[in-house]
Amino acid sequence: MSDDRETDTASEGSYQLSRHKKSPSSLTNLSSSSGMTSLSSVSGSVMSVYSGDFGNLEVRGSIQFAIDYVDSLKELHVFVAQCKDLAAADVKKQRSDPYVKTYLLPDKGKMGKKKTLVVKKTLNPVYNEILRYKIEKQILKTQKLNLSVWHRDTFKRNSFLGEVELDLETWDWDNKQNKQLKWYPLKRKTAPVALEAENRGEMKLALQYVPEPMPGKKLPTTGEVHIWVKECLDLPLLRGSHLNSFVKCTILPDTSRKSRQKTRAVGKTTNPVFNHTMVYDGFRPEDLTEACVELTVWDHYKLTNQFLGGLRIGFGTGKSYGTEVDWMDSTSEEVALWEKMVNSPNTWIEATLPLRMLLIAKISK
């Protein structure tokens, strides 16, 4: 797998980290003034399935659509008819250039995204398009259908105009009324993380801190953190019965490609066994307080990596080397594992932790 050609479709939010890169896995200069003074503030704190502008335009109007499952084709058909009374992106001329985008959640990647054509210069666009999803009905019943309306300007920037979300688990597919076109009022973006409460599976892992004593010094000056990724359990299926999962590891705040390690991909199972150990050296005792181990699980499909869930193991203080950061957000279980590791050097500390949604740091070049 080539990292340069793959696309990670986890999140559009990102934060930039800049530091000197002297060695592939060394953390010895993480807190040096030359490296950390360039740590910028975190941006894009909204975890979203979209890229675009959420705040500038009011949400108003409605959308007319219908859904149906065609058993003979094993397809979900979303018939997007029209919208009316949308907000005007161009206030002077009272018009927008709207289009409709649909997602099946929790699959937020390119496999789950469909969209209509853009209809220009109108607040009442007519589409009459069918957006099709090839998906088993049993899988469909675990999904939510999200329809969102967007204005696309001449620079291809998107502005959010509203959305509707249907829970397909409770949808009555046999009711003929449900196959008729209906008007739905457009709503504001609701939860920034629609899938926070969804079950993303678990990771079984073990951590160990190995201090490295220096000749002539009583206390060790640096050490290694060993991360043993054993297996994952009950990973979510985003594309039918197919899954080809692997685990990435990054030691934040270093988001350089050199700091990242990953396991091999394991296919055809929601309970992949990796048994892969990653070693990071150059950890001084103070780095253990400021750094964070980010483990993320991905489904590899063609040239795309789809985010499944992750962990952030650290002290969860909200700060790193004196700077407030979003990624220092470890849960109580993640903090407990890190604390045990720090307090029990040269000992493997094992845990099974629930995977969760993360706002992923984009890898710096």
TrEMBL record:
Cellular component aspect of the GO annotation: cytoplasmic vesicle; plasma membrane
Superkingdom of the organism of origin: Eukaryota
Biological process terms in GO annotation: exocytosis
Localization in the cell: Cell membrane
Residue ranges, compositional bias (Low complexity): 24-35
Residue segments, region Disordered: 1-35
Keywords of the record: Cell membrane, Exocytosis, Membrane, Repeat
Pfam families in the cross-refs: C2
Signal sequence, renumbered to the chain: none
Xref: CDD domains: C2B_SLP_1-2-3-4
InterPro entries the UniProt entry points to: C2_dom (IPR000008), C2_domain_sf (IPR035892), SYTL1-5_C2B (IPR043567)
Residues of the C2 domain: 59-184, 199-328
SUPFAM superfamilies with a match to the protein in the record: C2 domain (Calcium/lipid-binding domain, CaLB) (SSF49562)
Family annotation (PANTHER family): BITESIZE, ISOFORM I, SYNAPTOTAGMIN-LIKE PROTEIN 2
Protein name: Synaptotagmin-like protein 2
Species whose genome carries this gene: Sus scrofa (Pig)
Gene field: SYTL2
